[in-house]
Amino acid sequence: MNYRHAFHAGNFADCMKHALLVWLLQMLTRKPTPIRVLDVHAGIGSYDLSGPEAVRTGEWHEGIARLLNIETGPLVDYLDVVRPRLYPGSPAIAQAMLRPIDTLVLNELHPEDNATLKRGFKGVAVHQRDAYEVARALTPFPERRGLVLFDPPFEQGGEFDRLAEGMAGVWQRARGHVQAAWYPIKNRAPVILFHQALRDAGIRDIVTAELWLRDPTDATRLNGCGLAVVNPPWGFEAEGGAILAALSERLSDEAGAGWRMLRVCDE
After folding, report:
1. d(CA 267, CA 259)
2. Quick one: pLDDT at residue 47?
3. Rounded to an integer, what is the distance from CA 105 to the centroid of its chain?
4. Which residues are catalytic (predicted)?
5. Mind giving me the DSSP string for 48-99?
6. I need a surface site. Which of 14, 28, 72, 222 has the fewest CB within 10 A?
7. With a threshold of 0.85, does the pTM exceed it?
8. Omega into 140 within 30° of 0, i.e. cis?
9. Do residues 148 and 170 touch, judged by C-beta distance below 8 A?
10. Do the strands 178-185 and 224-230 form a parallel or antiparallel pair, or are they unpaired?
């Protein structure tokens, strides 16, 4: 429980995750019926990139800073949301995009971050529970439609296993809900095992979006990241690919960079 996302806000992994999140929310809010968004690893909600944590690492200079001058193409909707002074985390992005008929529910286990989250999101239900427990407890949604967002810190061993189990738990309770789960790519072996765990759990209709800044062979570095989406809206493979291609062009100068959209489980 030592992970603090403020040190990493606005980095390349945030850009990838949030650009895809914006597209997912656009698709989910097209229908007139209400949705619910449950963010089980919410952090503090938004981040000051001039604050001491962001300044100490400077990761945002290699992430969002490389994108801010883009004015056309598949990233413009994402950039319209994130250009304010405070870089929005997933809760702030969801809050900005949801309609009055929709509901946002947040969860953050870290006590200091939870207190900050509550101050910043008045009128929003904010829980302080284990992420996977709260995902099971609060699904299925009353609205019958919505998104469960997982963004674990991966600071302890076994996180891929816990993530696969958590996604399977939501699937068993709410098979129609969309799930989006972020994961790191240091090298390929753990990712291959994670994808297989999702198949073994019996989850259907999973597409993963993956972006890597360099050849993912050095397991000591965060070389890339992925977003596994259960029940992706129609068009995700094509539109997600366009988003990843635009990000790859801007975010990496190294050999071996790339991206892919991969169907892990059939419908």
Report:
1. 23
2. 77
3. 15
4. 151
5. ETTSHHHHHH-GGGGTGGGTTT--SSTTHHHHHHH-SSEEE-HHHHHHHH--
6. 72
7. yes
8. yes
9. yes
10. antiparallel
The closest of 128, 143, 151, 135 to 226, measured between CA atoms, is 151
> Residue 182 in 3-state DSSP?
strand
Estimate the share of the chain in helix, then strand, then coil, as percent rounded to the nearest 5. 40, 20, 40
Which residue numbers are catalytic?
151
Which token pair is 171? 């699937």
pLDDT (tens digit per residue) in 159-187 = 999 999 999 999 999 999 999 999 999 99
Pairing of strands 206-212, 46-48: unpaired
Start-end of H helices in the chain: 12-28, 52-57, 76-82, 90-97, 111-120, 131-137, 159-173, 188-200, 236-251
Instruction: Count Cβ atoms within 10 A of the Cβ of residue 54 and give its class: 0-12 exposed, 13-18 middle, 19 or more buried.
Output: buried
| Amino acid letter for position 25 | L
Query: Which pair of tokens denotes residue 212?
Result: 């890597």
Name the binding residues for S-adenosyl-L-methionine.
18, 41, 90, 108, 130-131, 151
Q: Cα 21 to chain center, whole Å? A: 6
Place of tokens 């968004």: 37
- Residue list, annotated binding site: 18, 41, 90, 108, 130-131, 151
111 three-state secondary structure = helix
Superfamily of domain 5-265: Vaccinia Virus protein VP39 (3.40.50.150)
Give the model's pLDDT for residue 3.
Answer: 47
Please report where in the chains the tokens 């909707």 appear, as a residue: 77
pLDDT in tens, 19-73: 999 999 999 999 999 999 999 999 988 776 655 554 455 566 666 768 767 778 8
**CA angle 144–149–153, rounded 5-degree value:** 155
